């Protein structure tokens, strides 16, 4: 019985030792986890401190502009200092084409039924050339009647003359009195007068018949035709043909009030009809003395020679050369456009991009002249303007101006 109690005591002691060993293992695991967590926190703090210090060094390097990573990222930009050169002062305008001297042609005589129309629009005609033929059947018979009356009157005049001559032969013999001689002279003179009246009436009929046909008042180009065979025309028919005298054309260029002051008679111009690449030389021959109060524009009339591309009523662009002026000249790639108008990018004193609004002047083969907005001493970005923004820092590389 004592043996059993001894065995139970031994078992109880063994269980106690196992319990303490398990508790010790748990404490070790917890200490290990705590140590790992502490090491992770220390590493995270070191990484944060290092990253913050590197960012501060980068910002300082960008502000100093030397030796930092920011200085290495500053791009090189090609710029040009244009200066001021002599360029032609040109004015751009647009307007419509018209005949310089338009000739409306209508009925000059009494009119009648149109028998034939001999011309078409676009055809050249000479002075006095028949454009349309009017029926003259009745008028021709009237002229024939008047021609016959001339012969009747001439026969009466011949008879009166013969009687007068016979009477003069009998005067010396006393067979004819002086009063009879006066009557015979009066009869002869009246007969001659009737001949002249008949001739005048006949010539009048011929003149009227000649005016029946519609003829060109001068040489030129037929622009429009408003008559067809069979149509009855008269004095109230209006314009039947329109012609451009000599084929001369003009452009009615609409100019702003300020530009109108710069244009004089004789100013050279280049006309480009819409839809073509033609450049037709012209010259201003008249400048409007008034300005439209609604549009604040005036008209400069530019004379141009005939060209098949010039159609009255059509639209055209004009470039008027009004002299020379001193202005900066830039490559076309340097000038950009935006909602506010044309602008260029320049490099300021601190090597930062600035945007300047400009007014474009003459566009030539050498570049684009700047009417206003630049003095000519700026460093203007030539290329890559679309990839730069105001405030960007760059390294300008100056190239020589093409002028």
Automatic annotation (TrEMBL):
Residue stretches making up the CusB-like beta-barrel domain: 253-322
Transmembrane parts of this sequence: 30-50
Pfam family, any one: HH_YBHG
SUPFAM superfamilies found in the cross-reference section: HlyD-like secretion proteins
Keywords: Membrane, Transmembrane, Transmembrane helix
Top-level taxon in the UniProt lineage: Bacteria
Residue ranges annotated for the Multidrug resistance protein MdtA-like C-terminal permuted SH3 domain, each copy included: 329-382
Keyword Transmembrane helix: yes
UniProt cross-references to InterPro entries, sorted A to Z: Beta-barrel_RND_2, HH_YbhG-like, MdtA-like_C, RND_pump_MFP
Location of the YbhG-like alpha-helical hairpin domain: 137-211
Family label: Belongs to the membrane fusion protein (MFP) (TC 8.A.1) family.
Descriptive protein name: Efflux RND transporter periplasmic adaptor subunit
Species assigned in the record: Sphingopyxis soli
Lineage: Bacteria, Pseudomonadati, Pseudomonadota, Alphaproteobacteria, Sphingomonadales
